Amino acid sequence: DIQMTQSPSTLSASVGDRVTITCRASENINNWLAWYQQKPGKAPKVLIYKVSTLQSGVPSRFSGSGSGTEFTLTISSLQPDDFATYYCQQYNSYSTFGQGTKVEIK
Amino acid sequence: QVQLEQSGAEVKEPGSSVKVSCKASGGSFSSDLFAWVRQAPGQGLEWVGGIIPLFATAHYAQMLQGRVTITADESASTAYLEVTDLQSEDTAVYYCARGTDDSGDYDNYFFAYWGQGTLVTVSS
Questions:
Q1: B-interface mutation test, from A94, A101, A102, most B Cβ less than 10 A away
Q2: Per-residue pLDDT of chain B (124 residues; tens, 9 = 90+)
Q3: CB contact B59 to A (< 8 Å)
Q4: Measured between CB atoms, does B11 come within 8 Å of chain A?
């Protein structure tokens, strides 16, 4: 199975901060990468797919980049609603999720 | 409007089995991917497996292979997950997710639609 490694595991930030989360795949996933946001007690919500395509309705402060095995999710200006846990997912070979990055209030 | 409605919470004893259902509405049931993703308390997301009803062949995460069976009933627009020989480590919320075919050739799916989750508790 393809392994996905996210960093950091926890990130403390303030409203207005620029935030970057990194996801590394154990092999080339041909840019089949998505990012999800999950809040406590709720199902995950897809933010970005195919590395950088914003899902309909997702604010433009979210962006994705990368290729091959290294990918990033960036939130340009953190908003109160963005404090949550974020997961990357590879869907090149079935599916694997990263272990998650919790974005908490500093 | 695409929706996924999952069956209710279950409490099971170690060594028993559980079967969780996911009824779909909207979209094209037979050609969509239906996946199961679980989340143990306080932990991350773990892909369990998935099925495209059109092909009727399920794929499973290596870790769970042999104890998990995913099926789909097209007449009922419902996907199922069965887990056998339950252990305490299987205690989790099990989510049904409907895949969006990003490549157009049934190979690459991200999950835009999710069920509400089903809590399975394994305890004696």
A1: A94
A2: 899 999 999 999 999 999 999 999 998 899 899 999 999 999 999 999 999 999 989 999 988 889 999 999 999 999 999 999 999 999 999 999 999 888 878 788 999 999 999 999 999 9
A3: yes
A4: no
